[in-house]
Amino acid sequence: MPSPCQSLPHPHGGASSRKRLTRAQMLPFLSAQPRCMVVMEACASAHEWGRAIQQLGHDVRLIPPSYVKPYVKRQKNDTADAEAIAEAGSRPTMRFVAVKTEEQQARSMVFRTRDLLVRQRTQLINALRGHLAEHGLFVPQGPAHLKTLAKALDATDVAIPQLVRDIGRTYLEQIEHLNSKIADLEKTLRREAQFGEETRRLQTMPGIGPITAMAVEAFAPPMQTFKRGRDFAAWLGLVPVQHSTGGKQRLGRTSKMGQRDIRRLLIIGAMAVIRWASRRGARPGSWLSRMMERKPLMLVAVALANKMARAIWAMQTKKEDYRDPDLAAA
After folding, report:
1. What is the pLDDT of residues 163-213, one digit of tens each?
2. CB atoms near residue 82 (< 10 Å)
3. C-alpha dihedral over 72, 73, 78, 83, to 10 degrees?
4. Residue 155's Cα: distance from chain center in Å?
5. Which of 133, 195, 251, 310 is the most buried (most CB within 10 A)?
6. DSSP assignments along 188-212, one per residue
7. pLDDT of res. 327
8. Which residues pair with 18 in a beta bridge?
9. 60: closest CA among 41, 39, 32, 76?
């Protein structure tokens, strides 16, 4: 939410007034003000506040907290935070976060809930594998081996205490319950992805399915926010870290400074494309074929995810379906 201590900037750079407000006083206070720019940190409830303030006719700007922190003077308190937000919002080169719609936040909740349940399922599977390993029963990793776990618990020729079998079945019941909930959420994501024109367009690209398409729609700002595809890839953290000085380009590892959900899904999709190309054979002379011959697969996956991010920007800004660049150049 906005800082309870509001600082109104003066036209010549100073503070014209300072006023401490509660949540209940915020909207009545802003409704009595002439139309202006309202700047807030992009925190958990900032998008709901932004929509409410936009309905009052004000121009709402959200700033990432990491961009506000350099403007905080010494002590951390509400007054210093309000001054820092006002100062950061007045910078001509400041980057802002787009206010999300209710639909975007609802879809992001579906995505995040599925992600949480998948992590909980993984924790349960690993815990059960660890307990069984202490009794000399070793099972490979992954949800694909759940049947092996169940058979091991039911096997009569394996010397396992009955208490371990009973608690192990409790684990399996919880895992099965999570599997059902995850499947329901995936059905919801697929159903939502069928209705949107942008999500349908994104799924024409190899490596992007309904979950990735929904993640792009839920978490990414409008593509018009970025001047070019590289800016979107940089926003995702798929470009090298720069340590350049004196006109010399020095590039390091992938920055990973950006939207991690979309970045992770794009890399997973890129790995799926690479596995398919490894089995079927990449097109001779194509960019992917040349990269797979010279570079490690994980590096190729990150590079391919970078290209996918740039293609997403082009598809969304030009309103066109995916076109294979190798076929277009042929």
Report:
1. 988 899 999 999 999 999 999 999 998 888 888 888 899 999 999 999 999
2. 22
3. -70
4. 43
5. 310
6. HHHHHHHH-HHHHHHTTSTT--HHH
7. 56
8. 7
9. 39
